[in-house]
Amino acid sequence: RERERERERESNISSKMGSAHEGTIDSVGISEDSATISYTKLIISFILIFSVYHYYTNIYCYFKRRGIRAPRPYPLVGNLVTVFFSDRMKLEREWSQRYGKLYGNFYGTRPKIIVNDAEILRQVCIKDFDSAPNHAASELLNHYQKNALFFTQDDHWKRLRALQSPTFTSGKIKRMFRLLDKCADDLVLCFSEHLDNDKQQLEKA
After folding, report:
1. Which residues have a Cβ under 8 Å from the Cβ of 174 and sit 6 or more positions away?
2. 9 has a pLDDT exceeding 60
3. What is the maximum alpha-carbon separation in the chain?
4. What is the distance between the alpha carbons of residues 150 and 165, in angstroms, rounded to a whole number?
């Protein structure tokens, strides 16, 4: 009987050791799986961050690659924050003095070129007008404003320009000169009256 009891004890001990060993193996397997998942997540996160960084860096190097000076943009918004929270005229004057008469900025991720040089404007708007027909159009414009010649684009712009070009021949402009001259005089007179009224109000105050 004592031998049987010893055998039972030995079998119980061996079974306990076996179950403990299996538990250790299972826990090691689970920890290895969790570590693999963590590394995978880390690698995917790194790839995503690098891709986003590379994408926006590539966009915001647009002017640098072309040798055009530009204020430093912020991620995602570009220079919109600076434009919205500053005096527009003062800001553009400051940028023009700092970056020259031709410089760039970003509306979000969209590059914009600002031209403050009369010769370049004459070249673009008169001599090479067909090379740059599109102008920036705001989403706030209504249907009629978007169909104005200045804001239309591509084929629609070409069609409208072809329709309107005969109206602005040199002969017709000469015939309209007197009317334009009268309108200019009326405008100057209107400004003068407003200035006189403002002066009188200031003197009374």
Report:
1. none
2. yes
3. 134
4. 14
Confidence of residue 2 (pLDDT cuts 50, 70, 90): low
Check: CB of residue 104 under 8 Å from CB of residue 64.
Answer: no
Q: What is the 3-state secondary structure (H, E, C) of 165-178?
A: HHHHCHHHHHHHHH
Q: Which two tokens stand for residue 2?
A: 């004592």
Helix (H/G/I), strand (E/B), else coil: 66: coil
Outline where 61-87 has alpha helix (H): 62-65, 80-84
Give the bridge partners for 113, in sequence order.
104
Query: In the chain, pLDDT over 70 holds for what percent of residues?
Result: 76
Structural tokens at position 137: 């159009």
What's the whole-model pTM score?
A: 0.53
Question: Tokens representing 88?
Answer: 């527009």
How many Cβ atoms are within 10 Å of 79's Cβ, its own excluded? 21
Greater confidence, 86 or 23? 86
Integer Cα distance of 49 and 55 in angstroms = 10
Please write the tens of the pLDDT for every residue from 114-154. 888 888 888 887 777 777 777 766 666 777 777 887 778 88
CA distance 116 to 104: 11
